[in-house]
Design brief:
alpha+beta, Serine Threonine Protein Phosphatase 5, Tetratricopeptide repeat, Arc Repressor Mutant, subunit A, 6-stranded mixed β-sheet, 19 helices, elongated
Length: 406
């Protein structure tokens, strides 16, 4: 490695992309192209960065497998930062295997951490936890170790393990100071604020109050019967009845819980579940069928009794009934939850993360843009969406986790 390449690499490690470019901007040899690509990514020109890294990988040639693998990892990191979740994960896995075969444990571990970060972003929490348990973080340098601890904290927050999340964030803050990276400091601070931000609303009778994540965690450990509008499920202690794919049944269960210990009128239930403007005999017949389904699903947790005017929900063991709702009830809240990480997302990346069609996500983005909640830049495939103002509430409960919904 010549002196200019070495100096440019040190400048990048110290967080000085302009200093790195000053040393290699006029060079077209493969190492210089790779460093220029990384520097351009640090400056925000993702498209140019990807092109330079691909050119560098081609220039290294088939015999320089290790250098090509490192370029692939750098390109994957850029794609992840740009929330391009459609980037081929197979290429990253192949690059990681090459790095392991050549004894580059540091970059191999970092490649694995990138794979895990993508799993977390798309809600595959079980897969992410298994992969994280197998990853040895000891070879990681301070910057990469900070990212590792952020992954641990992010997973803990999604699992509502606030004590573990707080410990991981403290470790991340220490390694971020060692790395001397303002970007990592900002990411640690942003994630730390979620611990004290409102995460959900607790509705119990006429009372309605905000809860932080640790309070939600304590609620889940209690014996209360919880109608969880964040994950569209009914839970009590260690038992959970998922209703994400049965919205009518969940709407009925929620309305019954909101009126407990009293009863919910039939017309009110029909309006909430079927969006019927006027309850007719067909609606009443369907209501009886759907209430029967709710009764069967909640068997052992609660019973639904018919009353003169409607139906009432009675927990089996006299627990109190509560509704856990998002801090802001908006059909586009999951999109805002993704954008709240401060990164610029593509609509395709949001669709992958939320498990929705790209057209559905685009409609949600257009609606949010009309109210000024999101904004975009770029055009076509380069268009990205951001939140101009980060929501002042925790978004962990609004993000999908496919392991808990399926």
């Amino acid at each position: 490695m010549d002196s200019l390449i070495s100096a440019a690499a040190h400048a990048l490690a110290a967080g000085d992309p302009l200093g790195a470019l000053n040393r290699v901007a006029l060079r077209d040899d493969p190492p210089a192209l790779a460093l220029r690509g990384i520097a351009m990514a640090r400056l925000g020109d993702v498209i140019r960065a990807k092109a330079l890294l691909r050119q560098a990988a081609r220039s290294f040639g088939p015999k320089a497998a290790l250098a090509r693998a490192r370029c692939a990892v750098a390109e994957a990191e850029i794609a992840l930062a740009a929330r391009d979740l459609s980037w081929p994960t197979k290429a990253l896995a192949e690059a990681r295997e090459v790095l392991e075969q050549h004894g580059d444990r540091t970059n191999a571990a970092y490649a694995r951490s990138l794979e895990i970060r993508r799993m977390v972003l798309v809600g595959h929490l079980d897969d992410a936890e298994r992969a994280l348990a197998e990853l040895d973080p000891s070879p990681l340098q301070p910057a990469a170790r900070t990212i590792y601890e952020l992954i641990v904290a992010g997973l803990a927050l999604r699992r509502l393990q606030t004590k573990a999340a707080r410990a991981a964030l403290e470790r991340a803050a220490r390694t971020a100071r060692q790395a001397r990276s303002p970007e990592l400091h900002a990411e640690v601070e942003r994630l730390t604020t979620t611990l004290s931000a409102p995460a959900a609303r607790l509705i119990e009778g006429a009372a309605d109050r905000l809860l932080q994540l640790d309070q939600v965690e304590a609620l889940f450990r209690s014996d209360a019967l919880i109608i969880d509008a964040c994950s569209l499920s009914v839970r009590q202690s260690h038992r959970t009845v998922p209703l994400a794919r049965r919205p009518v049944l969940f709407a009925l269960a929620r309305r019954l819980a909101e009126t407990a210990p009293g009863d919910a009128r039939r017309a009110d239930l029909i309006a909430h579940a079927f969006r019927g403007k006027q309850a007719d005999e067909s609606h009443r017949a369907r209501l009886r069928v759907e209430i029967g389904r709710v009764r069967r699903l909640l068997q052992g947790l609660a019973d639904v009794h018919a009353t003169k005017d409607g139906f009432e929900l009675r927990p089996c063991r006299n627990q109190h009934v509560v509704v856990l709702a998002p801090p802001v009830e908006d059909e586009n809240a999951p999109v805002l939850a993704c954008l709240a990480d401060g990164e610029a997302w593509s609509s395709s990346g949001l669709a992958l993360a939320l498990g929705e069609s790209q057209r559905t996500v685009q409609r949600a983005l257009d609606a949010l843009a009309l109210t000024g909640k999101v904004q975009s830049f770029g055009r076509g495939r380069a268009q990205r969406w951001t939140c101009p103002v980060v929501p002042e509430f925790a978004t962990s409960l609004l993000l999908p986790a496919w392991s808990s919904l399926d």
